[in-house]
Design a protein that fits this description.
Layout: H1 3-16, H2 20-34, H3 42-65
Helix pairs in contact: 1-3, 2-3
């Protein structure tokens, strides 16, 4: 990637990181509205939040640190 793009993605990731919890809440609410039967189980709902947080955080790590995910 070009240097300007790298700088932009790093800055974007740093700006979005404080909003991870809010973003995850929004995604889980959407899941609940689209697939309510999947999240009726309390343990499954908690796992969904945990896994979604992990995925969002990893995505931001990739953007911020320029990690190569192709390998």
């Amino acid at each position: 990637m070009g240097t300007e793009v790298d700088v932009f993605l790093r800055r974007l990731a740093r700006q979005l990181r404080p909003q991870v919890d809010q973003s995850v809440d929004t995604m889980v609410q959407r899941l609940r509205s689209e697939f309510p039967e999947l999240l009726q189980d309390e343990d499954l709902a908690a796992l969904s939040v945990q896994e979604t947080t992990g995925h969002v955080t990893t995505f931001l790590d990739v953007l911020e640190h320029g990690l190569d995910v192709a390998t």
